[in-house]
Amino acid sequence: MQADDLIQLASQGDADALEPLLRRYRSWMLGIARAEIGESLRRYVDDDDIVQHASAQAFRYIATLDITEDPSKQFEAWLSQVLRNSVRYFARKHRRRMERLATSVMEVHPERGPTASAVARATERRSRLEDAIAGLPEEYRVVIELQLKGLKQKQIADRLGTTKAAVNSRQERARRQLRELLGSTSLNLPSA
After folding, report:
1. Which residues of 37-61 are buried (b: 16+ CB within 10 A; e: fewer)?
2. Does the domain formed by 3-134 have CATH 1.10.1660.10?
3. What ranges do the domains of the chain cover?
4. CB atoms near residue 178 (< 10 Å)
5. What is the pLDDT of residues 28-77, one digit of tens each?
6. Whole-number Å distance between alpha carbons of 80 and 74
7. Which residues lie closer than 8 Å to 118 by C-beta, 6 or more apart?
8. Sign for the pseudo-dihedral over CA of 142, 93, 95, 92
């Protein structure tokens, strides 16, 4: 099947058409990721991570692509924007991680600043927690991410269109799964 046909089908919500299309564009996507990622971020994020995240976002948002004339050009423009957004996502994530790390280390040793081993331990803990959160089922992951952004249960319930009790239940289940994954009883999540 031709790329333009796959693009038309994918933009109409056909996930089976999007998958081979993204395989065809993989090297093109890697090229854009390499061009967009900065040197400081490259130390922490691989080009493949960017492409994988962008591919997941493409599946999620393909219905927003409105094909009017040249399908290949429109798809490439849309996909390159999805890739750039993925790069920005990882850049923000890395920047927030470093800011939280610096803050937590300064709270422990405000007069001396962070030691190399403290920074390494905090980085490892934060990375394990973020990986565990990313591995949660979507309904649990979303409530934890919103909680980490500082939203209260009522705000989360309003945003998700559910009840405060449902948010509380999801948070408790998410915490239980995180404890099982991390083997820890203290997750240091902000209180709801």
Report:
1. beeebeebbebeebbebbbebbeee
2. no
3. 3-134, 135-192
4. 20
5. 998 888 888 877 677 778 888 899 999 999 988 888 888 888 888 998 98
6. 10
7. 105, 108, 109
8. negative
